[in-house]
């Protein structure tokens, strides 16, 4: 037997080693999808034109995974609702013991405030919206791109903008293709500036502009971030389960009374100024927080229908009818419930108390007849005005006012809980500024250096050396296995005792575990203040 010689045409050097090529790169990879600018290298030459070859993609490389798979964490808002929830309240805590959640505001309130702040800072990249007068950084707030001319007779848009005068954020409502026929019409918005009520969106100014390429009316009002209309709240229920028809929930009667009382308070301020709201519809009432509403888009009808002005008394009487229709529609969970009046009233009779039914009927009656009471609680016919209506629902005013006081107390308690949080921040800032400074570190100064004399206090025998050890005692603790311990309660306890300067003594161990210093929080605080003053 003899070994067979290999064939001449079977030499491995004739074959190139496998290198991933871009055979199907155009079919497999879309450069516009899954691109991560923080992890995927960018080939500038590939952007020069379509004639250039696409860059070679190696699917086996570490940095190529972002091209094939979308990075789920890229360009996403923080998920505030994924915070660790509050567990069951421990029953064995003593009077002076607290849990970690007791040191912070409730999760629901924190999430709401964070969402408002995040939405207020939203900007549109590469926006083509123009700057109007002193307002810049316009951001469209409309959910639907379709034009709707129903409320005002003109296509309207709402924007968020920042004023260059005071730096505050305002809401700009624009009426498209509006032609001003008289300067007196635009002046009809001036009296609305004096209407300062907690249930009315404050109006600041009104003017016309051609910045959008047409003649537009701009109404500047206060901006309330993360708000929605009553139509979105009650007439667009969210779908809870996939594939199932969304169902409308029953609105509690106390919520309806809350809406009624707040709108009545707004009408008191509006009618008292000789004006009329004229637009009490679910789509133009903002829900700024839980059960807190504000009348929006006021004064627009005064400008738009200036040439066809009606008596103020007639417009104020129409406000009551619109309020009655609003409560009727929300109670029936139907935006067109006022078109079937008797059927809607029968539903209120079955689902709510007779007091609410009488209130709605009083609002819907154009003028009180001689045989029917003019107030929900008074059998004597009286004039139908806002004062009569307020007197009829005085008990509901007291109930809503009491609820507002309880809500205010809750906010004050949460504010007081966060009031002294800055104390711990100040301590952390001082410790960070003092520790690990190269110019004060004795190991970094040579024997001839002028800073060596000032750094002797930071040596292992110096009087401020235990500030370093205290930092390790608070933040760098380990367990018996040498694993880091992240105990928030320990950190807060130490910082609070340091801020108070208690006489409790603590052992401070050096990193080589050769020295142990027994000092009190009072001594550490004295050294901290002295070292910070020397900086």
From TrEMBL:
InterPro entries: Kinase-like_dom_sf, PAN3, Pan3_CK, Prot_kinase_dom
UniProt GO MF annotations: ATP binding; poly(A) binding; protein kinase activity; zinc ion binding
Binding site for ATP: 173, 222-229, 283-284
Domain of life, per lineage: Eukaryota
Record-level GO cellular component terms: P-body; PAN complex
Gene Ontology biological process terms, A to Z: mRNA processing; nuclear-transcribed mRNA poly(A) tail shortening
UniProt subcellular location: Cytoplasm
PROSITE patterns: PROTEIN_KINASE_DOM (PS50011)
Annotated region described as Knob domain, given as residue ranges: 434-535
Subunit-structure text: Homodimer. Forms a heterotrimer with a catalytic subunit PAN2 to form the poly(A)-nuclease (PAN) deadenylation complex. Interacts (via PAM-2 motif) with poly(A)-binding protein PAB1 (via PABC domain), conferring substrate specificity of the enzyme complex.
Domain notes: The N-terminal zinc finger binds to poly(A) RNA.
Family label: Belongs to the protein kinase superfamily. PAN3 family.
Name the record gives this protein: PAN2-PAN3 deadenylation complex subunit PAN3
Organism: Pyrenophora tritici-repentis
